[in-house]
Amino acid sequence: MKNAVTLKGRTEGFQIILHASASFEEVVDQLKELTVQLKKDTQKGHKLNFFVDTGSRLLSADEKKQISDIIEDEHFKISSYDSNVISIEDAQKRAREARPRLEVRTVRSGQILEAEGDLLLIGQVHPGGTVRATGSIFVIGELKGIAHAGFEGNENAIVLANFKYNAQVRIGGNVHVIESRDENLVQSEDIQFVYVNDLHIIEVGSLHHLKTIRPEIGKHSGGLF
């Protein structure tokens, strides 16, 4: 039988390497043998962490459960599964999130515009209209409605706009009401950005501070700045 599983020691426990050239049935059989031997050799009460490296093999949820059922007990625990490959769905999702979605339109009262990743809107958001994105939102135009960046919980997202008008900005679960005479706005500039600071409080920043506060902005393919 070919070698389907390799065990390597690590500071935090053991790394289990599953060879992609072997069938899953072979992996399961060798894991059972390996686990039985390990449990014989391990002192009672001694807890071990295992890190499963699947290489170019992508395990299904059912296959992960089979492996966990073989290895895990009160003393043996799988800390992570690592792979060199991802599913087509994950690759497509990452591609969508890596580039901003461009929309040229008006978002009227009652309408909701959503985007995965960053959103670049050229147009207007009327009072009662909502734009939201899992990433950051960049508005070139009038923002008079609601802009909700990081709406799945990403507090590193920002909202960049010309805050001349009354509007509501949300980042993750944080809410800030923009008033046209807000003292926090820098009157000498047309463009500001709203972000969540280290104290988890929303702040309004000057555009020239953007690269300092959020250096990752614009580093993805087709960056904005």
Descriptive overview:
The radius of gyration is 25 Å and the shape is elongated. It has helices at residues 24-41, 61-71, 88-98, 210-213, and strands at residues 5-10, 13-18, 48-55, 76-83, 101-107, 112-115, 119-125, 130-133, 137-142, 146-149, 159-162, 167-171, 174-178, 192-196, 202-206. Strands 5-7-9-11-14-15 form a six-stranded mixed β-sheet, with no helix packed on it. The longest helix has 18 residues, at 24-41. Helix 1 runs parallel beside helix 2 (61-71). It is 20% helix and 37% strand. It has 225 residues and is α/β, with parallel strands linked by helices. It folds into two domains: 5-87; 94-213, Pectate Lyase C-like, CATH 2.160.20.70. The protein has four helices and 15 strands.
What structural category arises from helix and sheet content? alpha/beta
CATH-defined topology of the largest domain = Pectate Lyase C-like
Q: Would you identify the CATH architecture of the largest domain?
A: 3 Solenoid
Kindly state the percentage of residues in helix. 10-25%
What is the distance, rounded to the nearest whole angstrom, between the alpha carbons of the first and last residues? 56 Å
Overall pLDDT level: 86
The radius of gyration computed from the alpha-carbon positions, rounded to a whole number of angstroms, is 25 Å
Supply the number of structural domains.
2
The parts where pLDDT drops under 50 for at least 5 residues are 221-225
**CATH class term of the largest domain:** Mainly Beta
